[in-house]
Design goal:
Length: 299
């Protein structure tokens, strides 16, 4: 089976497809650095850097499975109301899936987004466009049940011509502890932290002891190393605390928390902020692998 990957970003969906035995023949994104990162890790895939609302999908190579992870920021609860035109334009990227589907008629489609995607006022109309030709199912998956040490829940809209009913067992979770580089990074004394950070660290220490993760979000209780980290976002928010010192997670720890293998890399020109953004927007590869494998069998 062959696939194309729209909004391919850092390449998580493509890597998941490859892990499932599916060849990704074409991938696109509007962010050049993301396209460069994708090409670095998937050199056999044909790449395009462009606004996908302007793409001519009739030029795509032959393929069977359409993968897409359109912008999720416009669907988050924090975005509702504020900067309305901006977030409306982000939500509108999902229509590129319909454009591509109409032009290429793939055997199956998988679209990833945040759960609030289902609450988008246009979702029922968007879904109806796909349901004209496919059987559509919403599958909610949490990454920590698929070998990823992160409790990240995403919705996958799956469309197949044969009407597959996909069911997943959600048992067992991966711990973040084995994926941490305890000796790496630049450590800082907790005593030198800001008052707000100090309060969060004190709260985490009271709950988890001397070794734990804390997040730079107000009132967040922290996370123990014997459980999954919570959602990795595009913001650089997570720190590791050991005793009287703390540091930000390394980029490799962040990549591991997303389910990327250690041989996965990014351009040397990418800043820390770029890499966090790319990883935070990515599909967790093992989640993509498990779902794509099932869809490929059903399609």
């Amino acid at each position: 089976m062959k696939a194309v990957d729209l909004f391919a970003g850092w390449g998580g969906f493509t890597l998941g497809a490859e892990m499932a035995g599916v060849e990704v023949v074409w991938a696109a994104n509007h962010w050049k650095l993301a396209v460069d990162a994708h090409a670095l890790n998937h050199p056999e895939t044909k790449h395009a850097c462009q606004d996908l609302r302007q793409a001519d999908f009739t030029t795509l190579p032959e393929y069977d499975l359409l993968l897409a992870a359109p912008a999720c920021q416009g669907h988050s609860s924090a975005s509702q109301g504020a900067r309305r035109p901006y977030h409306d334009s982000l939500r509108a990227t999902a229509w590129s899936v319909i454009d591509c589907m109409e032009a290429t008629r793939p055997k199956a489609i998988i679209v990833e987004n945040v759960p609030n995607f289902l609450r988008w006022p246009k979702y029922k109309h968007w879904r109806a466009c796909i349901a004209d030709d496919y059987t559509v199912q919403e599958v909610m998956l949490t990454a920590s049940h698929h070998g990823v040490p992160q409790r990240r829940t995403r919705v996958f809209v799956v469309a197949t011509r044969k009407g597959a009913n996909l069911m997943f067992r959600q048992d067992g979770e991966s711990e973040i502890g084995p994926h941490l580089q305890y000796r790496a990074g630049r450590w800082r004394p907790v005593a030198d932290a800001s008052e707000a950070v100090g309060r969060r660290i004190a709260k985490g220490r009271a709950k988890f002891g001397d070794v734990f993760l804390s997040q730079h979000v107000s009132r967040h209780p922290g996370v123990g190393v014997h459980e999954p980290i919570r959602t990795i976002t595009t913001a650089d928010q997570w720190i590791l605390v050991i005793g009287s010192e703390y540091r930000p997670l390394t980029l490799r720890e962040t990549a591991r928390a997303m389910g990327f293998p250690d041989d996965y890399s990014w351009p040397s020109s990418a800043s820390r902020r770029d890499v966090i953004r790319g990883l935070g927007n990515a599909v967790c590869p093992p989640v993509g692998r498990d779902l794509i494998r099932r869809v490929a069998e059903a399609a």
